[in-house]
Predict the 3D structure of the following.
Amino acid sequence: MTKTSAAVIATIATDVGGVLYYDEPFELAWLQGVLERAGETDPHLTIEQFTAEMNRFYLQRAHSTASPGLYSPAGTHAWIDVRRRWTDLAQPVPGAVAALADLAAERPVCVVANQPPECEEVLRAGGVAEHLVLIALDASVGVAKPDPGLLGWAIEKLGWDASTTLMVGDRPDHDAAPAERLGAHAALVTPPSDWIAPAGVEPGLVAAYQRVRAERLKARWHPAADRSLHIRDLSDLATRLGQGQHRSAVSQ
């Protein structure tokens, strides 16, 4: 989307991770859990060995549809624990809920995200759900991004028009590209970085994760990003769309 009139945007779909809540605390809690369980199996496992395997896990997955395992079955058990702690681990992006409320006051807004069922509980507890007309999670719909079917399902369910729908996310490959394939518009937020590591995560693991996170952001680049509206966050989008009502322009 090189330039879009604000009047064209009638409906908004938004991702959760990186837009409303940080993904990183969940990932770090999971990695710490995997490290601890793998260490029980292999007492000689070092943090250096583990982080090297973590790098391969994330960067191979970024370049392939196949998801290599990370010390299975330790990864599976650690993920179960993270889901039990989902509410406690959730860290809202500052200002995101207020901005969502501003957007929802002007246009219908829904959530379209790859998230476990516990995400919906967090959205309701945090006062987010009251501003949404629908919560479409891959866990409940049965199709996950980057398949455009998840966004397509929400658009069809709500009776929206793809050509007047804006998908807001933090990933060109998972958010912008599927929207583009459906004929919808896309806005990409600046990946937020002021998250706080959960208590108990080893500092060496946090440092290694920060390095691989930077590489993952590069690997996620997709041509669809060049045609997307680039925004700082939801507050920025609310301001642009609000101004557009008066000036009729939302541009990069």
